[in-house]
Every structure is written in structure tokens, then in C-alpha cells.
Amino acid sequence: MRNPYDVLGVSKGASADEVKKAFRKLAKKYHPDQNKNDPKAQEKFAEVNSAYEVVGDPEKRGQFDRGEIGADGKPRGFEGFGAGGPGGFRRQAGPGGAEHFEFNFGGGGPGGGGGGFNAGDIFSELFGAGRGRGGGRAGPPPKGEDFAASALVPLAEVANAGKVNVVLPNGRTLEVKIPKGVEDGQQIRLRGQGQPSPYGGEPGDAIITLRFAPHPLFKVEGRDLRLNLPITLYEATLGGKVDVPTLAGKVELTVPAGSSSGRRLRLRGKGLESATGVHGDLYVTLQIALPETADPDLDALMRRWRDQRAYDPRKNSG
């Protein structure tokens, strides 16, 4: 993975506010909802998010600056005795912080020249071609390391149990099916999509953390959604029916006469679906919006109200 400072376009000495500002700018630029016709936008969006997970966290940033973790946020291995080349010894971090050691005897692998050992040869030599001590059957070769990655999922894909592209630490991109009723921060395991085993065992898994991407209209609270809806002064005064956006398309909402800004109305079942098939609700907060240009008639009406029908909406504010 690329250096997270380079991804965000900030220097190593950038302040936390500068890092956050750069992240927000790039996240807005590459947001999937703004780049529906750009298949690379999701990859760039995920790369920016991964970079911010490292340098946007003071603890991880310090670990990265000291060389303790890599750009992917995982502990760094360290090299020794020939940096793991032919005849070299290498110690690496494994799953869950455990460590494993490799020794390269040099020469070819399967079908290669030189009569050297490959990883499978080493395992066979150590355990007698699959047999352990006392002639018993040895366990299977160790699996490869797991990959950890995260993906930002647009709310439309969450609602429809759609798909999202995930970029793994090795640069490979996978198309992942979103589980029905997925929760923000939920992890899914893709078996066999991790690091190949150096000992000839099964490959590791890819563990994907799914995060809900910010939406320009909706705020997520559990399975419920919240929306601020602008209405006209006459709709607030006289009431009426207005169109309200939802993740499934527009629906009609009745605004009661005499509604003030801040009044909250509920649309049942228009939130996110749970794994059991139960839908949350959509809570709509009304916000009165005045005309964008001045209106002499409205100004005159408001002056008459001020002079003849004055009222105090702040009398209970203390």
C-alpha cells in the first residue's frame, strides 16, 4: 500500500486538523455517490479511508512514524541474515500478532532446478512427509495469514443488499456481496482470499470491515434514518402534502397546518432493514425556508404581523 501521507497529500509534520481537512476533501471528491460512472472512485475512496485510519489516529500515526506498523496498519516484519533471500532467515508477524519464521534454503521450487527446497519440501523434511513423532499423522500445514481490509458502503447498497468493491492489502480488488441487514462496523470473512501459506497449507482469509459511507441527506441511527426537510412558509402555515426522499424513492408526507421549524414527523418502515426483516423508521425534521429573493408583499405582510399580531416564541426559553 502507498504511504498514507502521500495518499492524503500531507506532510509527515502535518497537524491533526490538516490531516482531517485533507481527508474530508478527498473523501468528498471520490465519494461513490458523486462518481457513479467512475469504477475507480470506490478504490480511491477506500484508499483514502485506509490512509486516514492510520494517520488520523494519534496512536497508529505514532506507530507508523516509528516504523512499527506499515501503511496497512499491520505490524511490520523485520529482516535478518540475508533479508530472507537464499540461505536467509526471516521473522514475520502472523495473525493476531503471533510470529512465524521462514528459512530459504535456496534453489528451485516444484519443477525448478538446483535441487533446492521449497516451503513444502521443508515441511516434509521436518515431519517425515506428513508423519509426526511416533509414526502418528501430523496436522495439516499452517494456513496463510489473514488479510484485514475495510470498505465504505453507500447507503443505497446497504438498503438493497447490493455489492461493493474491496481493495485488499496486496492490491487485489474483490466484489463483495453486502449481507442483508448489515450493521455499521460489521465484519465478514471471505475464506481463502488471504495470504498464501508459505508451508503449502490453505490460504488465509480476508476479514472485511464494512462501514456505512456518509450520505448527503440521511443520518443513520441504528436502523432508523433522520432527514432534515426544507418546507415553504405557506406549507408550514397552511399544511399540505410534500414529497420526501427515501432510500427506495420519493414518498408523500402530510405536513400538518401550523407546523414550526424543528417539528419531527415519522415515516414508518422507511429506515434500514434488519437481518430479521424488520425495517426501521425515517424521522423527518421540518425546516422552514424563506424565498431566496426578497418579496415586497411578504415583507409588508410581516410588518403588519409585527405591528398588529406580535407574539413571543421565546417566552419559555428562560
Percent helix, as a range, is 10-25%
Number of distinct beta strands? 14
Q: Which class do the helix and strand fractions yield?
A: alpha+beta
Low-confidence stretches: 78-136
Rg from C-alpha positions? 29 Å
Percent in strands: 15-25%
Average pLDDT taken over every residue: 80
Strand order of the largest sheet: 9-10-14-13
Give the SSE order as H and E letters: HHHHEEEHEHEEEEEEHEEEEH
What would the keywords be for this entry?
318 residues; alpha+beta; four-stranded mixed beta sheet; three-stranded antiparallel beta sheet; 23% strand
Describe this protein's structure.
By secondary structure, the protein is α+β, with helices and mostly antiparallel strands. 24% of the residues lie in helices and 23% in strands. It is built from 8 helices and 14 strands. It has helices at 4-8, 16-30, 41-55, 58-65, 119-127, 155-160, 233-238, 296-308, and strands at 78-80, 89-93, 99-103, 147-153, 163-167, 173-177, 187-190, 206-212, 218-221, 224-231, 240-244, 251-255, 264-267, 282-288. The strands form 5 sheets. A 4-stranded mixed beta sheet has the order 9-10-14-13.
